[in-house]
Design a protein that fits this description.
The complex is a heterodimer of chains A (400) and B (231). Chain A contains twelve helices and eleven strands. Chain A is α+β, with helices and mostly antiparallel strands. Chain A has two domains: 185 residues, no CATH class; 192 residues, no CATH class. In chain A, helix 2 packs parallel to helix 10 and helix 8 packs antiparallel against helix 10. Chain B has one domain: Rossmann fold (3-Layer(aba) Sandwich). Chain B is 34% helix and 28% strand. Chain B has eight helices and ten strands. In chain B, helix 5 packs across helix 6 and helix 6 runs parallel beside helix 7. Chain B is globular and about 45 Å long. Classes of the chains: A alpha+beta (400), B alpha/beta (231).
């Protein structure tokens, strides 16, 4: 007799249906073991999502603020003393072809700021007093939150514009005619409050007065602390290269030149390191979740030996049994992974919205999450599936 | 000899020894012809369930030869035995083994799962099989909504939905009251009339007495074979 025997092929749709039946039979256990995977994936998606959203916010901010702002300040002399910038440096920098605007500020180290003249002298709140030129606002991209900015007239009188944190510390919410503060032993009228200035954070904790007012009322010597230079966006590096020599031709080594947007980007890069750590923690959670799935499958197979025996009696091959349980593990972890991606995206959306950032969940982390889920499910399900296929049908059916 | 060509199952010197030295079958010789209805009787521990597992290819003998429908099972790989079961052998168990939470129709349709038939064909044939065992009105009921007899008839429908040449029933009435048991026996007798070879394992003499041939077992041996047509 030459008849041959070929087992029937199990259709892939039937395999998925079988896996679904298996999971539905024990819903609570399915949810709990899927939860392990979900938490791991959610942690990874949220970590990447939040850092991407933060990055997107930074890009948006840099786009808004421009990356073409340079600062030049006095460095140290060869002997380690604080040097100064020559008075004519503003004019000289202004003559560089691709510079759009240039402005200067000078700190008044002796001047302290108090809400009233009754506040004890040590409680100065760390507020810095700066004499500024009226073109500072446009050059550093600052905006006025309340009141007005200094003009040619108010710059000559005891009028002050407060940085955002300064106003907060002094308890001044809005500007009205009769708000005065005790500044360097004089009453100054508050005429404006600035929004936060991301590119020049020192201004946030500053009290800004006119250049001439400083000289007239507070014995300001006119020394320049920092120059702010806005260049043609395509010529930032070119201007940067010649800036030190232009500011102080005699001693270019005593000039510190920097680009504030670089500092913001560096800060973001520092956060990336932290992201790596959190991502690692997420991976550990995922691994634990995978072990949970493997555990669930092993227990499930012990409980379902009779079902395995029955299926073998109906003509299932070892391969049919193996694929059924492997698919069940895969389905379990895909359910967990899908829930994790939703959860992680949700956490990202909530956090980003609270921070006022755009919500960004990169496609690669979603694809990566699904891939990781498939790998975890496959690895976790493989051994239990192989064990299930090895169950001897006659023995399994006897256990009732 | 014409008897030899008609033999559907042939056991020659079949023994089955389990690890630990337990001998469940001890040199069994048995021929069962196509279309026979046979009872295998014996007290518990006499080796009748092992005999059923061996005849159903769920278990391989430690020694001896088993030939089923012309196939010597020693020559067949595990997946070929699976195919043999899928297309030629149906099983009925004492405790039904129905999937909970799944309708009677889909439980029966699962009997065709490993034959490669599509879902629609499986359900159509399952409905026919359920009507054949008198359960046309119970298609959508889940196992917990069925009586014991109905559960066993559903399990029989699952076993015969593939139209197997051989039906092996292990204590099919063992978990049922006499009335339900009677329903189940009637279904088996009807199936026999349509030409299916049926082997019923039972420890109840009353059940065995109704079948045309009784093979009695004790301690892993065949001790009696009445109305036998031994080759």
């Amino acid at each position: 007799m030459t008849r041959s025997l070929h087992p029937g092929r199990l259709k892939s749709l039937d395999v998925v249906r079988l896996a679904g039946y298996g999971l539905r039979a024990r819903p609570l256990r399915m949810v709990l073991s899927a939860l392990g995977i979900a938490i791991g994936i959610a942690a990874m998606v949220a970590v990447v999502g939040i850092s991407s959203s933060s990055r997107a916010e930074l890009d948006r901010l840099l786009d808004l603020l421009g990356t073409n702002l340079l600062t030049a300040g006095p460095g140290n002399t060869l002997f380690g003393e604080q040097s100064t910038l020559p008075d004519e440096s503003v004019a000289m920098v202004g003559r560089i072809g691709l510079v759009e605007t240039v402005t200067a500020i000078g700190q008044l180290p002796g001047a302290k700021v108090y809400r009233t003249d009754r506040i004890p002298a040590p409680q100065s709140g760390g507020i810095g007093v700066y004499a500024v030129r009226t073109d500072l606002l446009d050059t550093v991209g600052a905006t006025v939150a309340s009141g007005t900015w200094l003009n040619d007239a108010t710059a000559q009188y005891p009028a002050v514009v407060l940085g955002s944190k300064t106003a907060e510390r002094l308890g001044i919410g809005t500007v009205s005619e009769d708000v005065q503060i005790w500044l360097g032993g004089q009453w100054f009228t508050v005429i404006g409050i600035l929004d936060p200035v991301p590119l020049v954070p020192r201004l946030d904790l500053g009290a800004l007065i006119g250049w001439k007012a400083g000289q007239r009322y507070l014995d300001f010597d006119g020394d320049i602390t920092t120059l702010y230079i806005r260049t043609d966006p395509d010529a930032v590096e070119a201007v940067r290269g010649v800036l030190a020599r232009t500011v102080n031709p005699a001693r270019p080594n005593e000039v510190d030149v920097s680009r504030p947007s670089d500092a913001l980007a560096a800060q973001a890069a520092a956060e990336t390191t932290f992201t790596g750590l959190l991502l690692g923690l997420g991976a550990v959670a995922l691994l634990v979740g995978g072990i949970g799935v493997a555990n669930t499958m092993v227990i499930s197979i012990l409980e379902r030996r009779a079902e395995i025996g029955l299926r073998r009696s109906l003509g299932a091959t070892r391969g049919h049994i193996r694929i059924q349980f492997l698919t069940e593990a895969l389905l379990l972890s895909i359910l967990g992974g899908g829930a994790g991606i939703l959860l992680g995206s949700g956490v990202t959306a909530v956090y980003a919205t609270l921070q006022g950032w755009p919500t960004v969940v990169p496609a690669w982390i979603m694809a990566g999450g699904i891939t990781a889920t498939l790998i975890i499910g496959g690895v976790a399900g493989l051994y239990p599936a192989i064990r299930a296929a090895r169950v001897a049908p006659a023995e399994a059916l006897a256990e009732i | 000899m014409s008897n030899w060509t008609e033999a559907f199952i042939t056991l020659r010197g079949v023994s089955r020894e389990y690890p630990g030295g337990v001998v469940a079958l001890n040199g069994v010789d048995l021929n069962i012809n196509r279309g026979e209805l046979v009872a295998i009787v014996g007290p518990s521990g006499s080796g009748k369930t092992t005999m059923l597992n061996v005849m159903g290819t769920l278990d391989r003998p430690s020694a001896g030869q088993v030939v089923i429908d012309g196939f010597d099972i020693a020559d067949l790989a595990d997946r070929e035995l699976s195919a043999l079961r899928a297309f030629r052998i149906g099983f009925v168990f004492q405790h039904f083994h129905l999937a909970p939470g799944v309708s009677a129709l889909d439980n029966v349709a699962d009997g065709l799962l490993y034959t490669g038939a599509g879902l629609r064909e499986r359900r159509e044939r399952a409905e026919v099989a359920l009507r054949r065992v008198g359960l046309g009105h119970r298609l959508t009921h889940q196992p917990h909504e069925l009586s014991g007899g109905e559960k066993q008839r559903t399990a029989i429908a699952r076993a015969v939905v593939r139209e197997p040449a051989l039906l092996l029933a292990d204590e099919p009435t063992g978990a049922l009251d006499s009335h339900s048991g009677e329903d189940v026996m009637r279904v088996l007798l009807d199936l026999h009339k349509t030409g299916t070879t049926i082997i019923v394992i039972t420890h109840e003499g009353v059940v065995a007495a109704r079948l045309p041939r009784q093979v009695s077992m004790l301690d892993g041996r065949v001790v009696d074979d009445r109305m036998g047509v031994m080759a």
